[in-house]
UniProtKB/TrEMBL annotation:
It is a multi-pass membrane protein. It holds the Pfam family HAMP. GO terms for cellular component: plasma membrane. This is histidine kinase. It is found in: Cell membrane.
Length: 488
């Protein structure tokens, strides 16, 4: 007995469907064969009766002797292995081709049908012998005077034996087909169940945290897709765990470095005995490292909000030129240390709808990365232009170290760092991309190792909305004329 499970369900359902189909086909086939044989016998006897009737209508037998007429009928229209009977309209036998004349009345249904004017047919068991027979009867009128019932009676035992043999043969063929189907159904069930059992076993190990195991086997169709999906899932989990471990290691280092400076200078200042300059230097370092810590924490908090869809945007009309000018002001000091030139090229009147602070966060991150990975005495270009009636493209282009093809596809992944030695959490670009997507925009990167990187942010345009002050005077957001020298 097959134990409960998918294998049992497949085998039983498959066998049931094929069995019912075979049973239906065999029943229809046997009924058709039986009908064909019986109709053939009936047609033969019917044709002889019709021929006899036509004969007596066409040729007049000049004799008043009924016995002679009946003898002519028996001699001319007798059929092999078939008894020809001549009956009265009441069903009493007058004569037969066998010479046997029972003293009983024929009461089968074919005789009344013949008397009614049609050709009667009856199939059943003959009384006395219990033999299966067929009778065909028709009323026959001779010269308009004498009316008889002409009845053919034949045995169906031979036909029934042939039908029985044919039935047994068809059952044997059906049994052979069922045997093949059973073997095939077990093979089909195993081809489905065994891979699923293997996948289930491997999945159970994955559920226990063993993500290094893989589903082995070249499975096809949906099962192959399932195995590939689970293997890919395990690979991604391993990768995510590695990224998480790398992130923890990186963030621990990033946090420890400023904390060490803060702790060291705090203890130094507490001990006292330092001149104002040294004290000022220590306080400055503590302040700087504190800002660095705050930046790291805010970056992690921003990422957490984005992942949980909890980041709120303060939507308004943003002047892109002002946004880029403010970005340059914020990053100028850092660029100046490496003697990097910041160039701005922006069309006037480009406005986008969004959160100005969050968009500034995006471009600060992009320009900060450009400064970090650019050579001294190089330049960084910021540009913005309309690319269609509904969109603007804002680009940050540097001529720094660039990014290799192996890393360019992963550089926007969370926690990924091209160069861990430069510090950071590896979240900046991931956060920037999600902020841009919240503004219905896109962020694309093109880079070549050793030649530089170009980042393009595409945002939807909006029409500028004038602001009205308390005195009813229309105002437009001011620009920074002092930055005009930086424009290319």
């Amino acid at each position: 007995m097959i134990k409960k499970g998918m294998r049992r369900q497949i085998v039983l359902h498959y066998i049931l469907v094929v069995f019912l189909a075979l049973l239906l086909v065999e029943v229809i086939f046997l009924l058709a064969i039986r009908t064909y044989y019986y109709d053939s016998v009936y047609s033969k006897m019917k044709n002889h009766i019709t021929t006899a009737e036509s004969f007596f209508h066409k040729y007049e037998i000049d004799s008043d002797n009924n016995s002679y007429q009946l003898q002519v009928l028996l001699d001319r229209f007798e059929l092999p292995n078939t008894e020809l009977e001549v009956l009265t309209l009441n069903g009493d036998m007058i004569t037969s081709s066998t010479g046997f004349q029972p003293d009983r009345t024929i009461t089968t249904s074919d005789v009344p049908e013949a008397v009614g004017g049609s050709i009667g047919r009856w199939v059943g068991r003959q009384s006395g012998t219990n033999e299966s027979v067929m009778a065909v009867s028709k009323m026959l009128q001779v010269h308009g005077r004498d009316t008889y019932v002409l009845r053919y009676l034949t045995s169906l035992e031979g036909i029934n034996n042939d039908l029985l043999n044919l039935t047994l043969l068809s059952i044997g063929i059906g049994a052979a087909v069922m045997a093949v189907v059973i073997v095939f159904s077990f093979g089909l069930a195993n081809s489905i169940v065994k891979p699923l059992n293997n996948i289930t076993a491997v999945s159970a190990q994955m559920a226990k945290g063993r993500f290094n195991v893989r589903i082995k086997g070249n499975y096809k169709f949906e099962i192959g897709d399932l195995a590939s999906t689970l293997n890919y899932m395990a690979q991604e989990i391993v990768r995510s765990n590695q990224i998480k471990d790398d992130f923890i290691s990186s963030i621990s280092h990033e946090l420890r470095t400023p904390l060490t400076s803060i702790k060291g200078w705090s203890e130094t200042l507490v001990s006292g005995g330092y001149d104002p300059e040294e004290t000022k230097l220590g306080v400055s370092i503590i302040s700087k490292e504190s800002e660095r810590l705050i930046g790291l924490v805010e970056e992690i908090l921003d990422f957490s909000k984005l992942q949980q869809n909890q980041m709120k945007l303060s939507i308004g009309n943003v002047d892109v030129k002002v946004l880029l000018q403010e970005t340059i002001l914020n990053i100028w000091a850092k660029a100046e240390k490496k003697r990097i030139h910041l160039l701005l090229e922006c069309e006037d009147g480009i406005y986008v709808k969004g959160d100005a602070n969050r968009l500034k966060q995006v471009f600060l991150n992009l320009v900060d990365n450009a400064v970090k990975f650019s050579h001294e005495e190089s330049s960084i270009e910021l540009s913005a232009k309309r690319i269609s009636a509904t969109e603007t493209a804002i680009m940050v282009r540097d001529s720094g170290i660039g990014i290799s093809e192996a890393h360019i596809s992963r550089v926007k992944d969370r926690f990924f760092q091209v160069d861990a030695l430069n510090g950071g959490t590896g979240l900046g670009l991931a956060i920037s991309q999600q902020i841009v997507e919240l503004h219905n925009g896109t962020l694309d990167m093109v880079s070549e190792l050793g030649k530089g990187t170009e980042v393009t942010v595409i945002l939807p345009l909006t029409e500028p909305q004038p602001e009205v002050n308390s005195e009813g005077v229309t105002q437009i957001t001011a620009t920074f004329p002092e930055l005009d020298d930086w424009e290319a």
